[in-house]
Write a structure and sequence with these properties.
The chain has helices at residues 28-43, 68-75, 93-106, 137-143, 150-160, 165-184, 215-218, 229-233, 261-266, 292-303, 321-329, 343-346, 353-368; strands at residues 4-11, 15-16, 52-56, 84-87, 112-120, 195-196, 202-203, 250-260, 273-282, 312-315, 372-379, 383-391. It is of the alpha+beta class. The strands form two sheets. Strands 1, 2, 3, 4, 5, 8, 9, 10, 11 and 12 form a ten-stranded mixed β-sheet that branches. Strands 6-7 form a two-stranded antiparallel sheet. Strand 11 and strand 12 form a beta hairpin. The radius of gyration is 20 Å and the shape is globular. The two termini are 23 Å apart. The relative contact order is 0.21. One of its GO terms (molecular function) is acyltransferase activity.
């Protein structure tokens, strides 16, 4: 069985996912095309040798409806014989693209694959693909009556693990502070591909980071999910989830070049990391955001490792309660958990987030001398992915 290695990993800057955001004027396929061009240019590969392009994308409607990876590849001017596929596992779509690529290499189906992700939330709003429809159906409603939104699930997670409003806000402040430090000291420079705009401008840094964030100001923000019938249904909840301790709606894209070890050696390319193990799980669809806990247990067991073996962990910051609940189950020094901030500071461009986290994790390990990294993502419906990588730098 072939070993899958990551030759390179890049991402776009993160733009606010609303009208006027730094990347809101860029069509999502052109945004991904720019990232693909950056990846191919950095590695020097012949794009015609890529055997498949796997792209995570959640809202596959409107400008993201025509297999965005295929359109991005064509927009980049690359050979038409290279196909693409869209992957949708909610927030874990980009990470699943990476894992499917690695599986294809391990199975001998591919030697060279690009795993990517894209989400333009300013141009294709979250939930627009539902068009007001009920996505659950009567069977789910009978088996799981009263399923809630992710925001309410984040409240239930905070309640179950006894997380205070202050701890959530302080965590959010830390996310911005860590991201700001990484940006200020050049920690993100090696992963960001600048994006050219139609007006001649260039976006080359994350727009979402708020260096001056402080817990006092965050404490003034109202909780946003405890309204109407929910208050009556959950009378014991002290509603704590706010815009300040939640991930940001964001535009972004990212891409990784994966190969078999043999093909990388034959091409004279030095891999940056290898995939050690991966897992995917389902969990309680009401709590919904707890999947990273059993996914971590499963991937550590599969790798024959313990959490003490891991030098850095990326737990997607969909809401501050998610990494804090994970940390309660896997006691980990705070400096090892999301060491460069997360989606609270850098944003959460749904289908691209798994790729963004991986690019950041690889760079962090290289720049700090770490060996093993763990990445895990909570996903709507009560699912989660987890991946362990080894830095080869």
């Amino acid at each position: 069985m072939a070993n899958a290695v990551i030759v390179d990993a890049v991402r776009s800057p993160m733009g606010r996912g609303k009208a006027g955001g730094a990347l809101s004027g860029v069509h999502p396929t052109d945004l991904l095309a720019a990232v693909l061009t950056g990846l191919v240019g950095r590695t020097g590969i012949d794009p015609g040798m890529v055997e498949d392009l796997m792209v995570g994308c959640v809202s596959q409607s409107g400008e993201q409806s025509a297999t965005p990876g295929r359109q991005a590849w064509l927009s980049a001017g690359y050979p038409v014989h290279v196909p693409a596929v869209s992957i949708e596992r909610k927030c874990g779509s980009g990470q699943q693209a990476i894992e499917f690529a690695a599986m294809g290499i391990a199975a001998g189906v591919y030697d060279v694959v690009i795993a990517a992700g894209v989400e333009s939330m300013s141009r294709v709003p979250m939930g627009s693909n539902r068009q007001g429809a009920d996505p659950y159906g009567p069977g789910v409603a009978i088996r799981f009556p009263g399923l809630v939104s992710q925001g309410v699930a984040a409240e239930l997670v905070a309640q179950k693990w006894g997380l205070s409003r202050r701890s959530l806000d302080e965590y959010a402040v830390s996310s911005h502070a860590r991201a700001a430090k990484a940006a200020r000291t050049g920690g993100f420079d090696n992963e960001i591909v600048p994006i050219a705009l139609a007006d001649g401008g260039v976006v080359d840094r994350d727009e979402t980071i708020r260096p001056g964030s402080d817990a006092g100001r965050l404490a003034e923000l109202p909780a946003v999910f405890g309204t109407g019938e929910l208050t009556a249904r959950f009378p014991d909840i002290e509603w704590k989830i706010t815009a300040g301790n939640s991930s940001q709606i964001t535009d972004g894209a990212g891409a990784l070049l994966l190969m078999s070890e043999e093909r990388a050696a034959a091409l004279g390319l030095t891999p940056r990391a290898r995939i050690v193990a991966s897992s995917v799980v389902g969990d309680d669809p009401l709590l919904m955001l707890t999947g990273p806990i059993p996914a971590t247990q499963k991937v550590l067991a599969r790798a024959g490792m313990s959490i003490e073996d891991i030098d850095a962990v990326e737990v997607n910051e969909a809401f501050a309660s998610v990494p804090l609940a994970w940390q309660a189950e896997f006691p980990t020094a705070s400096e090892r958990l999301n060491p460069r901030g997360g989606a609270i500071a850098l944003g959460h461009p749904l289908g691209a987030s798994g790729v963004r986290l991986m690019a950041t994790l690889i760079n962090h390990l290289e720049q700090t001398g770490g060996r093993y990294g763990l990445q895990t993502m909570c996903e709507a419906g009560g699912m989660a992915n987890a991946t362990i990588i080894e830095s080869l730098a």
